[in-house]
Amino acid sequence: MGKNKIRTQLEIQDGECFWGGAVAHGIHMPFSRDRDWTFDSCMQDTTNPVNGVFCSTHGRYILLKDDFRVGVKSGIVTLETDAPPVIQKAGNTLKEAYLAAAATFGRDRVSVPRELLTRPQYCTWTEMLTDITQEKVLDYARSVAESGMPYTVLILDDGWMKAYGEWEFAEEKFSDPKGMMDALHEMGFKVQLWLVPFVDKTIRDHEMLVANDALVRCADGSVAEREWWNGTDPVLDMTSSFARDWLKKQLDLLMEKYGVDGFKFDAGDCLYYRDDDITARPTTASGQNYLWAEFAGQYRYSELRACFGYAGRHTIIRLCDKRRSWDRKEGIGALVPNMINAGLCGYPYTCADMIGGGSIADFGGEAGGVDHELIGRFCECAALMPCMQFSYAYWRRNDVIKELFLKYARLHAELQDYLAALIEEAEKTHAPILRALEYEFPHQGFEEEIDSFMLGSEYLVSPVTQRGQREKTLILPRGFDWMYSPTGELFRGGEEVTVPAPVGTLPYFKRK
Predict the structure, then answer these.
(1) Which among 298, 315, 294, 309 has a CA at the least distance from the CA of 426?
(2) Which part of the chain has CATH 3.20.20.80?
(3) Strand (E) or helix (H) holding 87
């Protein structure tokens, strides 16, 4: 962010609530006259997408270009930006504000692969961590196919490659990668490979990358080495055409040689760059983050965890790794609010992390001692979200969990036509697939509802995310009758209802 910042203030109206900005800050949304909040995109304190858009329940929206700081205190929003903010009114509702703001987002010429949303995904990460081998991958894939659960893509996570930056199958782990890929395709899987922009100093091309200024340099001219969750390494400069061409050549070769379908682009977060880095073209930390996402976007089958200002594109976004816990900040309790905020930040194709959480701190042994109630609730919560991704093979370790997984994986797949229609709508208007109740039913008292959501306009979903809870109480939107899907019971909208929700039952209603 430049030194001469533009400072703009906006008064929040009585009863007005704003959503947006940073996906991972959904747990702090919405902000209003009665709630203070701050966010500085330069501080790089989020490991999920950021987008400079804020939409209000009174039809107002704010658009911020590049880096920004937002402070909310005593009913006043203070914006600090390099470029003047756009502040407009587009009606009187959250939906009108969002759709007007979304009309300014970028658009891809290619569409998101429907099957990535309409059928569950699978990832090797929490099942294998980095101890991944050809035999384990094939065994895992067979277990999915034999379980009866629907499936589409299999993501081979960290550990498949020779080294960070040497994106070729490790020979000691994969004796016949082409044969493995053929077998996975024969089973019906699409296959994506994990990667990061870090470059191990031991790889064969390291000196060539240094010589061609393809790596980020510190302000003193030395090659930057940035600490990340699995080491300290140089990082690619995504402003460098040499770096981009070098990486693309490796990834394209994997597709041509083995039939790889796409890639999971991890890292790229702003926190791994500095605004005073020396790069091939002038940019900021956020600019590097955007370029990493833009590079990922050229592959149809792609997944991102972190991006900046990349709203409206076809790439799947995944919430940052969640803890296998009931926590409202980093565990299951963060899923619904952060997913709502993802849609209102312009990222409709979002995955609520892996079922059961994806944090490495919670895995690495057998399933003994695992909270099966918690795992079941994770699965229920994800079932009617845009993307459903499994990883740890609980279905091989517990028959009760297996039946619950099977039930909700099938439910997700049964809605494939409905999901496909929502994807088509999102491609045209960037409308969220998972929506705040306030988005669909404005000014009925749902302004701050963060425990329930709408899938499109027909399904109201209210997952259980608290330990020991066996029923759910909520107010149904007025103007419609609602069928409680687990029992078929009809309720009139506008009434407070309490419905049974034992473990294995997802509370959701269909609008009639």
Answers:
(1) 315
(2) 115-192+237-271+283-425
(3) strand 86-89
Task: Give the pair of three-digit tokens for residue 230.
Answer: 């699995």
The mean pLDDT of 217-235, rounded to a whole number, is 96
CATH 2.60.40.1180 residue ranges of the chain are 434-511
* Top-level class of domain 434-511: mainly beta
Tokens describing residue 16: 């007005």
**Model confidence band, residue 367 (pLDDT cutoffs 50, 70, 90):** very low
Burial of 223 (C-beta count, 10 Å sphere; 0-12/13-18/19+): middle
- Sorting pLDDT into bands at 50, 70 and 90, what band is 238? very high
The answer to whether the bond into 177 is cis (omega within 30° of 0) is no
297: Cβ contacts below 8 Å, ≥ 6 apart: 108, 310, 313, 314, 315
Q: What is the mean pLDDT of the chain?
A: 95
Q: Which amino acid appears at position 467 of this protein? A: R
- Supply the DSSP symbol for 170: -
pLDDT digits over 122-166, tens only? 999 999 999 999 999 999 999 999 999 999 999 999 999 999 999
pLDDT at residue 384 greater than cutoff 50: yes
Separation CA 437–CA 363 (nearest Å): 35
Q: What is the mean pLDDT of the segment spanning 33-49? A: 85
Tokens standing for residue 317: 């976004």
Q: How far is CA 2 from the centre of its chain?
A: 29
Tokens of 220: 């003193």
In the structure, how many helices (H) and strands (E) does the chain have? 13, 28
Homologous superfamily, domain 115-192+237-271+283-425: Glycosidases (3.20.20.80)
